[in-house]
Write the structure tokens for this entry.
Amino acid sequence: MSAEERMKQVRDFLGQFVSNTEIDPDENLFTTGLVNSLFAMQLVLFVEKEFGIQVANEDLDFENFKSLNAIVGFIENKVDTAS
Amino acid sequence: MEIELNDAQRTIQAELRAFVDERVAPFAEEFDRNEKIPDDLIRTVGACGYLGAMVPAEFGGKGLDALSWGLLCEEIGRGSASLISLFTVHSMVIQAVVKWGSKEQREKWLPKLASGESIGAFGLTEPETGSDAGSIQTEAIADGDDYILTGEKRWISFGQVADVFLIFAQVDGKSTAFLVERDTLGFRTEPIGGMLGFRSALLAEVHMESCRIPAGNRVGNIGFGFSHVGGAALDHGRFCVGWGSLGLLQGCVNACLEYTGKRKQFGTFIKGHQLIQEMITNMIVQTKAARMMCYYASYLKDRGDPSLIMETSIAKYFTSRVAVQTALDAVQIHGANGCSDRYPVARYLRDAKIMEIIEGSNQMQQIIISKYGYQEFIMAKRQARKTDA
């Protein structure tokens, strides 16, 4: 899967939670009010199911989840590490 | 999607049904009168591997699939809501450690939790903080390689007997989770009695006065306590409450089918009275609808599907809500008998009310479910536009 395809999948997922369809890739999700316990676990499950990776204890870092770009970067790192 | 149980699921259902009929249901009123699930029953459900059945096999558990776990919770919930609350909080701690625990935490705690050697409890709610869980006041201050934890927790199910507590605290204003052992200096619990329902759930207040907690007991990173550690645990807790409420519903149905076939008024069994039939019909239909929602949540949980979170919330909301309505009707059908402890329906009613409050009150569920409805509606419209284009 290409980086563009991953970006589109994550963007589509986040699109469920925001009213505007265009999300700034660097917009800080933690300042949007989007992040709560329900969203957090849905995001974890989405990343794990769609990209076949495990989000683990050591991955719980704000830098990995703060924006669309950060999430896609995190996924790419995990996929690269696994392959 | 298949909604037929496989052989292994039917086996565990039959095993738990027999266990509950023999060891739990006949004594549930006594447990409530004594305000205590007996120690030997707690030891037994631990030793049988039921309590830690969702712990992966590599750590000594049964590694049950979600539907099997749900069936187990249904049977336990049918026998005693207080006992299902043990399964709920204990497995919430398991869920948190399985998902977010360190390698050392998993190796130390999961075998003990799987066997029931250690009992787990969930410590989020405080005297001044319920639904607004982000505002907890318990504080943990870093001190070298440790944290100094100070605060109070309230309404902690099985807090009177738990060995390890998953405690949520603020670290520099950021929610963080810790495993706190009972024998920690400065840690003590006080029993809570006189509850409306869950009377034998051994509720406690937890007091922590400058408890020194090793940094190795922190679960997940600083700031990910409520959102991720709590999120995983609470989702699992709602799953258990939904299935447990289903068991309570089935208990109401069973009690009413039994009673209406024995009780005569106006020269005929009351099951022949049409107004009774209306109540019986409603409770049967609502129980079947609730079961389908629980099955669906289980299906998603086994697949690790993100929609599991919301569908579990929906199942918990519906099942606990209709449990209250059904238990009210069950008491009505039983008349004065239903208001006594000679029949289980009064207990069902008291316990059903608690199901609407725990693991996120139903008002909190309404807020998130309605929001979810709008999200699905918007996504469906976007999808339709893409298809048209």
Summary: Chain B has eleven helices and ten strands. Chain B touches chain A through 31 residues (CB under 8 Å).
